[in-house]
Amino acid sequence: MSAAEAAPPVSKRARILRRTAVGLGLAAVVVALLLLASLGESGWVVIATGLTLSALCCFEFARLGSFARRGWAWVLAPCWLLVLALDVHTLRWADHARAFAADPGLGRPSSMLGFAPDLPFEAICVALLAFVARLVVDGLATRRAAQRWMALGLTAWSGWWVHLFVTLQLESTGLAAMLAGPAVLAAAATLRWDRSALSAAGRAAWIAPLLALPLPWMWHVWFRFEHGGLAALIVLAKVGDIAGYYVGSTIGKHHPFPRISPGKTVAGCWGSFLAATAAGGALVAVGLLSNGPLGILGGLLAGAATNLAAQAGDLLESWIKRRAGVKDAGTWFGPAGGVLDLVDSLLLAVPAALLIWPLCLS
Question: 205 and 336: one domain?
Fold first, then answer.
């Protein structure tokens, strides 16, 4: 008999206590990061934290069950590089906007993407090169002569334009434009030769941005609603998780999503929704969220909308895990799972807050 078979099963109460202990430790870390973010004016702590979490999510996803054999890293890495460049660009735009507010003579930044445009295009070049490189490697490894010749042609074309960019100091926009053609051509050829790649490319089109974009976007919540708004977003996204877990574990009996999330119960969903809705009104009452024309009603609506998005994000992550054939995304936090298990509620809650909060709180 193995040690695992000899070990007594962990009781439900013990699992709840262990998860509570992990949750309290993570809550202390979040509070420390929020305090650190409040000390600066640029919000670099918020973006750095979001980028780190999104990178860990991409890493976990690339190693997730059956997905580990599909080579997702070549799609996730370029997408994350693009997000990194756009976030650095955002910080530069914010610095320029603050400088303009102090001294209008510096010139108004036309838009968030209208200031220093080369940085995003440099990231696009890196992403396209990574995409072409992956397809070139696949083409050279095959026995089909047509694929090998196309791979050699794409290598020569891309290398020539990179050479011109380095030696003649061409603009990044021109390099990105010249690399876009080979990338599209290589993708079209690969999908034609390998039908199974079509479904993988379709999943990559929405999974990569889903993992890479929302967490760094917490900076926009911080920029629009200040430190209190960022803290409120995390509270509203996680208080529903906490309430849903304890209510569902205590009195939950009916399981509305047995194929996607077998542990989720109707009682837990309602407990999550009611707790987050009430928390939204309380956050307005204590001043953590802005008191707009709707007053506490606006906070209740913001809490309800954020919770619905958070629960949808949790279900979406559960669906992805079921497709990969795993229960948890990782083992970083013991009974709480991996990074993706902890931030799943934020994946849709952040965009929902940016879209809905201005309507409820402004």
Answer: no
In this structure, the answer to whether residues 347 and 274 fall within a common structural domain is yes
249 lies in the same domain as 302: yes
Question: Tokens for 331?
Answer: 């083992």
Half-sphere exposure of 154 (CA within 13 A, CB side): 31
Indicate the range of 26-35, 249-258, 261-270 predicted with least confidence: 26-35
Q: What are the structure tokens assigned to 281, written together? A: 């009104």
State the total domains in the chain: 2
**Cα 268 to Cα 249: distance, rounded to the nearest angstrom:** 8
- Within a domain: residue 206? yes
Q: Which of 99, 6, 39, 62 is nearest to 227 (CA)?
A: 39
43: DSSP letter:
-
- To the nearest 10 degrees (0 to 180), the angle between helices 196-212 and 172-193 is 140
Structural domain ending residue among the three candidates 148, 181, 216 = 216
Rounded to 5 degrees, what are φ and ψ at 333? Answer: -120, 35
Domain-located, residue 86: yes
* Token pair for 360: 């409820």
CA 194 to each of CA 86, 152, 200: distance values in angstroms, whole numbers, following the listed order: 33, 19, 10
Q: Could you give the CA distance from residue 298 to residue 281 in angstroms, rounded to a whole number?
A: 7
What pLDDT, in 10s, does the model give residues 43-91? 888 888 888 889 888 888 888 887 776 667 767 777 787 788 778 777 7
Measure the CA–CA gap between 327 and 236, rounded to whole angstroms.
Answer: 25
Asked whether residue 63 is assigned to any structural domain, the reply reads no
Together in a domain, 123 and 159: yes
